Amino acid sequence: MHSLAHPTLRGAIALAALSAFAPPVHADIALLGSASIPGTATDKSGLTGTYTLGGTDIKAQLGAFGSGIAYIGSGNQYVAVNDRGFSNGEAHYDDRIQIFEILTNAAAKTVTPTLLKTVLLRDEQGRPFTGFSGNIGTAAPRLDPEGVRVSRDGNLFISDEYGPSIYEFAPSGKRIRTLQIPAKFAIAHPDADGDKESQGNTTGRVANRGMEGLAITPDGSKLYGILQSPLLQDHALSSDFKKDGVNNRILCCDLKTNKTREFLYPMDDKKNGVNEILAVNDHQFLAIERDGKGATDAGFKKIFLIDIAGATDISSIASLPPSGAPDGVKPVRKSLFIDLLSPKFGLATPDFPEKIEGIAFGPDAAKGKHQLIVTSDNDLISTQPSWFYVFTFDDGDLKITPQKIDKAFAPKG
Question: What is the CATH number of the domain that holds 265?
């Protein structure tokens, strides 16, 4: 297994800066194949026994790792991050990441994922992170991982929906840094009960809809995070605590100076959520936006191409309207890249998952086709598999001008 600490990008996709934004052409985007892992599979954590919640939640159960995925930059290896575990944070789940090898065969249209390693997450003192929602103000803090990206030196940035926070971890699973996030994103009164938490705060993120997706720019200088839904002060909820607003925020963190910027991302529907963001270059990104339904009830599972070039920094705006941009504010530009429910892909079936949450570029496939890996989060429900979908596309689908890897995203050293 290649070391996560020293990634290389031989054979990796290199997505170059675009000279100007233009609506993409989608004729060549294809589904290479898909694969699933049973919800009853186990990981390589070495944990034994079950959690006390019901006594049936196996500590080493493999699942929920589709919350976030990132290409390590070596061979066909990826890091995937599990969310907070069983039963919406009711179990004292040990937070962890998974290292997968994902092999694809374009001719046979096969996708073969193999689990290589499981790494448990710890804080600076070596205390285990837990997904238990009741761990508030305790020595072992609660952590709900949702997004993951690999830095140029091989460390991992992981988003925490509870905070909302963004942490940097060493490949060993030890936290080494906490990024500075503007105070407007935090809540004043955390609570183990999500409904009580949302009702007991007037500012900050909505319970269980905090920092979701992460993207790192090709030069490794900036990290972008996106919330699952608008902040409370941005009219996320109505007076009866129903989803209301569509104006979401993207946060940009300069990893050297700690300076931040914010951009307005308008969701297509107030019932949707945003689950991931992936950098194409220093100003364009792919973003997952979806509804909360699965199987044949699923109605909205889309990946958008967004562009922050020319978008207004809204850091100084304390409150956004429920819809529509404030005067003088330009939101990010947004166009459809992939509709996962399009008949051309044949995915709108009774086994299609609700929670499409992870995306990552991988090594190029045959004939120079680029690969996009899409993953699902099964919430550790043993009767539901975890899915991998692999799409292929050409430079023209994103209007990309190819660029050498050593200039686009070469690791330090």
Answer: 2.115.10
Q: Minimal CA–CA distance to 219: which of 177, 255, 181, 250?
A: 255
Residue appearing with tokens 């030196």: 153
Q: Is residue 23 part of a domain?
A: no
CA 61 to CA 49: how far, in whole Å? 10
Question: Is 203 contained in some domain?
Answer: yes
Query: Residue with structure tokens 């790494």?
Result: 119
- As a whole number of Å, the CA-based R_g of the chain is 20
The SS3 call for residue 229 is coil
Per-residue confidence at 400, pLDDT binned at 50, 70, 90?
A: low
- What confidence score (pLDDT) does residue 21 get? 36
Domain count for the chain, please give it: 1
DSSP notation for 39-107: TT-B-SS---SEETTTT-EETTB---TBTEEEE-SSTTEEEEE--S-GGGGTS--B-EEEEEEEEEETT
Q: What are φ and ψ of residue 227, in 5° steps?
A: -80, 155
Q: Is residue 19 part of a domain?
A: no
Distance (Å) of CA 81 to CA 98, 216, 367 = 6, 16, 31
**Strands (E) located in 309-362:** 333-339, 356-362
Query: Where would I find the H helices in 173-321?
Result: 194-199
The model carries a pTM of 0.90
CB atoms within 10 A of CB 183: 9
CB 302 within 8 A of CB 257: no
Strand arrangement of the beta sheet that strand 284-290 belongs to: 273-279, 284-290, 301-307, 333-339
CA distance 158 to 144: 10
274 three-state secondary structure: strand
Non-local (6+) Cβ contacts of 397 within 8 A are 24, 25, 26, 28, 29, 337
Q: Determine the straight-line distance between the first and last CA of the chain, rounded to whole angstroms.
A: 20
**Is 18 within a domain?**
no
DSSP string, 352-391: --S-EEEEEEEB--GGG-EEEEEEE--TT-TTS-EEEEEE
Domain span at 377: 30-408
* pLDDT value, residue 304: 97
Q: Which residue has the higher pLDDT, 307 or 398?
A: 307
Residue 316 backbone phi and psi in degrees, to 5: -85, -5
Any idea which of 309-323, 329-343, 353-367 has the lowest mean pLDDT? Answer: 353-367
